[in-house]
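Pasting as-is:
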Amino acid sequence: MKNIGIIRRLDELGRVVIPREYRKLHHINVGDPLEIFAIDTGSIIINKMDNTSDLIQVGEAVCTSLSAELGMTAAAANFERLLVCVGHGKQVLIERELPHNVVKMLKNRGSYNGPITGDEVGRFPDVGFSYIAVAPLFSVDECFGGLVAFSEKPISEAAVASLKLAGRLAGDALQRY
């Protein structure tokens, strides 16, 4: 017998539900962008969009500028880890997993400025910095991750405003659809 997978019916609005098992297996969450194509054989393919390489490319340019202008270490992150780091101590930070509180904050388009050990951000242990500022990297329609500034001294509100502005501009650059 031929394995045909899970069968779903098209509803009156042209929608098909992707089964929970597939969404869980492929880490597809509500709001994730999906690319849909039809091929000549009549098959329809749905791919989860992965913008990591775009985020790294835009993040390098933004973090280089932020680090130079603000005089602190700057990083760009998706919702899992720091992807790009520029400035002092970048070797310790690159690929560092984001604390759960920071991920939640970014997904809600929130920001933070304060001690690196604050309850709002969770813990970034052993990174060698005392203060952190976090701002979402987003466009009108979607949040892609965040920008993070690390410093030994308290971070000024002007620097945080620059971080927020850079996050919005970078998010607009990442918006493709």
